[in-house]
Design goal:
Radius of gyration: 16 Å
Number of helices: 6
Distance between the termini: 25 Å
Order of helices and strands: HEHEHEHEHEHE
Shape: globular
Strand order of the largest sheet: 2-1-3-4-5-6
Largest sheet: 6 strands, mixed
Number of strands: 6
Structural class: alpha/beta
Length: about 160
């Protein structure tokens, strides 16, 4: 949903900051994002894809690298909101405005997503449903080990069409 949203706005140079290797959430979020890009016929060069660690510092470091590219991305998707806040810091230090100069989207819809300015566009997970499903699995009350839960994109002020290049 985040990839489709950014593409619908007109972005084609999109930076991607993944979560840490070995996490199921990293695999799933990466797959989902790149499925959205593929469906729109958008490919990202390798230098637009960086690894993060679901931390503010890793988002900041990755954003510094992305924003230093000769053709910097017009949008960045961070695989969680904490890394996205690191992107905010890097953009601010570089004198870039979100969303005017850089659109930004995250994942989790953590409380900070609505507290920062402008508020972060992010993917919301059904956390109460996730907790219930986990409890059902632990208690042996779930029919299956794999439970699919709904997510939705919460569009806030951190995304807009790209500025003219």
């Amino acid at each position: 949903a985040a990839a489709e949203h950014l593409i619908r706005l007109g972005h084609r140079r999109i930076g991607f900051i993944s979560g840490p290797a070995g996490y199921a959430s990293t695999v799933e979020r990466t797959a989902g994002f790149f499925e959205g890009l593929k469906a729109a016929g958008v490919e990202l060069p390798a230098e637009y894809r960086l690894d993060g660690a679901y931390t503010f510092d890793s988002g900041y470091r990755a954003a510094c690298k992305l924003l230093a590219l000769p053709q910097r991305p017009t949008a960045i998707f961070a695989s969680n909101d904490e890394m996205a806040t690191g992107v905010y810091r890097a953009a601010l230090e570089k004198g870039l405005k979100i969303p005017g100069d850089l659109s930004l989207a995250g994942f989790d819809d953590s409380p900070i997503a609505s507290w920062i300015s402008p508020p972060l566009t992010t993917v919301r997970m059904a956390i109460p449903d996730m907790g219930r499903a986990a409890a059902d699995c632990l208690l042996g009350e779930a029919d299956e080990r794999l439970v699919e839960l709904e997510s939705s994109l919460v569009v806030r002020g951190s995304t807009s069409p790209p500025a003219g290049d």
